[in-house]
Design brief:
The protein is mainly α. It has helices at 13-19, 59-91, 97-111, 126-162, 181-187, 191-194, 205-223, and strands at residues 25-29, 37-42, 53-58, 168-170, 176-179.
C-alpha cells in the first residue's frame, strides 16, 4: 500500500535483513500498516545475483484460503468414507454386521465434526482391520489440519481485533457478519446494528446510496465469476464527532 512513499527512502531494518539473508525463505513480516503479512523473499546473494525480490501476502487471506481447503478436504474424506461403507454393506453379509455398525458410528461422529472419535480395533477379519486403521489415519490427518487452521484463525483474529483500522467480513451473499472493535469505536455501530446491510448506516448520507448500488453491482459480478475485487472510496461518519 502507498508504494510511492517508499521511493528514495532507505529500507526498514526488517526488509534490509531479508535483502542481506543468505538464502531465500518465508517469514512473518512486521504489520507496519496494521495488516499481518507473510513475506517470501529472494536476497541478493541468490541467483539471479544482484536482485532482491520480496512478496507479502495478507495473513487473513491465507488463513481463509487454508480454511476453505480444509473444509473441502474434510468433505471429500467424509464422502469417501460413506461410499466405502455403502460398498461394504452391499458386498458383505451378516457376519460383518457388527464391524460395519462400528464404522458407521464413527463416521457419524466425524460428520458431526467430532474428529476425536476413532474406530480402534474391530472384529471381522484382516480387511476390516485395515479399513479401521486407514480411517483412523485419515481422522488423525484432519485433526492435525483443523488444529493448524484454528491456530492460524486465532492468530488472524487477534491481529485484526487490535488493528487500528476498520475491518468487516461478509458472507457469500455480501451480508456483513463480523466487525472488529475499531469499527464500533469509530462508527458507534455494534455487530448487531452492522449485520446484513446495516453497515451502510455508517456511510456519509451523501454517499450512502451510491455505495449501496456499487456494492450490489460488485456482488452481482462476483456471482457471475468475473468480478474484480470491490474497491470504493467513501466517507464514514465518526460517531464521537457527530459527522
Amino acid at each position: 500500500p502507498d508504494a510511492g512513499r517508499f521511493v528514495g527512502q532507505p529500507l526498514p531494518p526488517s526488509a534490509l535483513a531479508l535483502m542481506q539473508a543468505g538464502e531465500a525463505g518465508v517469514t512473518d513480516a512486521p504489520a507496519s500498516d496494521g495488516v499481518s503479512r507473510v513475506a517470501a523473499h529472494i536476497p541478493v546473494a541468490v541467483d539471479p545475483a544482484g536482485l532482491f525480490v520480496a512478496v507479502g501476502l495478507a495473513a487473513p487471506s491465507l488463513a481463509n484460503n487454508a480454511l476453505h481447503a480444509d473444509r473441502r478436504a474434510a468433505l471429500m474424506i467424509i464422502g469417501s468414507l460413506l461410499l466405502t461403507f455403502v460398498v461394504a454393506l452391499l458386498v458383505f453379509v451378516g457376519a460383518v454386521e457388527r464391524p460395519v455398525r462400528r464404522l458407521l458410528q464413527t463416521a457419524r461422529s466425524w460428520e458431526a465434526q467430532d474428529w476425536a472419535a476413532r474406530v480402534g480395533r474391530i472384529a471381522g477379519g484382516r480387511e476390516f482391520r485395515k479399513l479401521a486403521e486407514a480411517f483412523d489415519t485419515m481422522a488423525e490427518t484432519v485433526t492435525s489440519r483443523e488444529a493448524a487452521r484454528l491456530r492460524a484463525q486465532t492468530r488472524m483474529e487477534a491481529v485484526v481485533a487490535v488493528a487500528p483500522q476498520i475491518v468487516l467480513t461478509a458472507d457469500e451473499m455480501g451480508q456483513v457478519d463480523w466487525t472488529n472493535p475499531h469499527w464500533e469505536e469509530i462508527t458507534g455501530l455494534g455487530l448487531g446494528a452492522s449485520r446484513g446491510d446495516g453497515w451502510l448506516a455508517a456511510v456519509h448520507p451523501d454517499e450512502r446510496e451510491g455505495a449501496a448500488i456499487a456494492w450490489r453491482e460488485a456482488l452481482a459480478r462476483v456471482a457471475d465469476g468475473d468480478g474484480p475485487p470491490f474497491s470504493r472510496e467513501m466517507r464514514i461518519c465518526h460517531a464521537a464527532q457527530g459527522k
